[in-house]
Structure formats: C-alpha cells, structure tokens
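User: Before I run my own analysis I want an independent prediction to cross-check against. Here's the chain; please return only the structure tokens and, at the end, one sentence I can use as a sanity check.
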Amino acid sequence: MSETRDNLLAEINLPATSQFPLLDQLDATENRYIKDLKINVSNALKYATLTEKEALLLALAVSVNQKHEITINSLTELAKTKGASDAEINEIHALTSLLNANNVFYRFKHFVGKEFYNTAPAGIRMSIMMNPVLGKEFFELASLTVSAINGCEMCVKSHEQSVINHGATEARIMDAIRLTAIFKSLIVLL
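Assistant: Structure tokens:
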C-alpha cells in the first residue's frame, strides 16, 4: 500500500488498513490515477466557494445516493467534526431519498413528453423543501448535485436556476458539481 493511497483514505476519514480491491489493485501497479484521485479529492474538499462542512455534506449526499455505507459513516463523522448537526445530516439523507423519487418521476415525464404526463400533478409530498434545516440555497445546491448524478435534465435545470435565484454564483455551482463528480469517481473504486 502506498502513502498516496493511505493519504487518500485519510482525507475521507477511513483507516489505512481498510481493504478496497479495486483501489488496491490500481495502487499495486503504481498507477498515476491514485495520485490524481488523491489530489482531486483533497482539492474538492477545499473549494473556496464551499465551506468544509458544505463540501462534506455534499460528499455525504453522493455516498447516500450511491448507498455506500463505508463512506456514509466516515463522512458523517467527519462532517460532525466540522459542525454538521444531526438534523443537517438527516436532511441530507431525506433530500437524497426525495430527489431519487423526483428524478425518476420527472425524467419519465421528460423522456415521454406527452401532454397528459406533463400537466398531471406530481402527487409527491415534498414538505422538507419548504423550510429546510440546511437553508434554501444549500438545500437546492445539494438537490442539484443528486439530480446531476441521477441524470434528470428537468431537475438539474430547475435546481440550478433555484440555486442562482437564492443568490449562489455559477462558480459555486461548478464547484459543487465538480466535487460530486470526484466523489462519485472515488466511490467506484471503494
């Protein structure tokens, strides 16, 4: 095991003794990608437009979306050290679940494109969106990242506009999406 691999795992609060066959296989061949991935993860957690807590909560949303228990646990612990409350962490879980329902529903509407489906009410309760613990802007930003992972064009466009309407910059959105992409790529190897 290389020092780069161990440092990568330390970035996300995982012990160096953890075994991850795909990551370890790449590491054993001295693959340059492990170094790139370590740098990408480290940089993603330090983007100027996101606080450390926000970056960790977004990474947690990726882990919850991908149902990756190991990183859900490690990122939850790490987010708490940066001030995330149980209510905020629970809201990340709830919004990720809600967005999975919405992404399936609205992706279907978009793909089919029939008038009946486009005008029919969603019929999906979304009360957590009304007064989120995380605040409207960050709730929408996290919703955008989950929608991007799940490939719902309608949801991505809607949440991107909502984040901007709540005062975020395009640079903040880009940092959040880049972080999401990097953490999804990391989870593939874990």
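Sanity check: The mean pLDDT is 96.
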